[in-house]
Amino acid sequence: MRKETVAIRSQLNRSEFQEHSVPLYMTSSYVFEDAAQMRRRFSEEEKGNIYSRYSNPNVSEFIEKMALLEGAESGWATASGMAAVFTVLGALLKSGDHIVSSRAVFGSTHKLLTEILPKWGITCTYVDAVNYMGYAEAIQANTRLVYLETPSNPGLEIIDLQRITALTSGKGITVVVDNCFATPFGQQPLPLGADISIHSATKFIDGQGRSLGGVILGSSELIKKIEGFARHTGPCISPFNAWLLSKSLETLSVRFERHSSSAHEIARRLEEHSKVDWVRYPFLTSHPDYELAKRQMQSGGAIVTFQIKGGQQSGQTFLNSLQLFSLTANLGDTRSIATHPASTTHSKLTREERASVGISDGLIRLSIGLEHPEDIWDDIEKALEES
């Protein structure tokens, strides 16, 4: 079946009640037929649910759908996107290991790489997103993992995954890709050579600003290592959130198609506006990595970033003048969202660190929602006139 059908029709077997929509399994634990079955489950001689920190029917369905959509053998779901990032790094790295990461990463990921992991003797070297010689030079004898965001947040840089995996091939290095901005309907990192794909399911997968969640996808071998760490450290997703996210996957393809088509049109119009210095959108021909984006991605996605003339003051005025857009730190919602990264999502970075990844004081990040595109543009245009 094609992905759109898989997202709708891959679900748990119906119970004796023959429900059409999968029910919620709100239970912390499960009973066994007898002591022998209990022993077999705990010794992993027999598959089955034991405790909802380990597995749950709703969680299992969500993971299976995501694995099918991304071409993964297996997966693991977590309580949030950052829980997914930390779980991967905590499970696969040990003291003395080294990470190579693209410089443009989410603010909390930056804190994890530069302040938290070093406490345990795990170091990181940053490389500018598309500096492929830099990646080659940064790899050391103790490098065990390469971490990438593509498209990056918020600069929308596109990293050639096949070039990166060619550099790491045969060196015992795990390539991890944050695929949050693209979703499985915009990009599949695993067929391009990546070992692990991570999502903050809080964003487009939920798509309606309701629930937190994260998911890790990869080979059965890697997920087995991650599972052992996650079962005992407890970053598990709730059955209710997993149920919501699994239901949301049924509409992700049509939502993401509308997100992308509207965002492309908004980016095109912004590029022509006199109060805008520049615009970044992967499927604009002016994007530095346009040809790569067209080759590696199926659509440009919902995120548009631009630099407004006048710097931070104009940016703040623009945000305060918006009427339709929500001012919130989330993205990937049915509702359009505007954010000022320098003072919000990336405010923990120093000014120099922000400048190194292209985050200026006048940078605005838009997450284009599902409202009518003309209404979205009317709101942007009026706010630009007032800024």
TrEMBL record:
Record carries keyword Transferase: yes
One Pfam family this sequence matches: Cys_Met_Meta_PP
Pathway field: Amino-acid biosynthesis; L-methionine biosynthesis via de novo pathway; L-homocysteine from O-succinyl-L-homoserine: step 1/1
PROSITE patterns per the UniProt record, alphabetical: CYS_MET_METAB_PP
Keywords for this protein: Amino-acid biosynthesis, Methionine biosynthesis, Pyridoxal phosphate, Transferase
Residues where N6-(pyridoxal phosphate)lysine is found: 203
This enzyme's EC code(s): 2.5.1.-
CDD domains listed in its UniProt record: CGS_like (cd00614)
Catalytic activity: O-succinyl-L-homoserine + hydrogen sulfide = L-homocysteine + succinate
Required cofactor(s): pyridoxal 5'-phosphate
The keyword Transferase is assigned to this record: yes
Function: Catalyzes the formation of L-homocysteine from O-succinyl-L-homoserine (OSHS) and hydrogen sulfide.
Family designation: Belongs to the trans-sulfuration enzymes family. MetZ subfamily.
Assembly, per entry: Homotetramer.
Name of the protein in its database record: O-succinylhomoserine sulfhydrylase
Organism: Wandonia haliotis
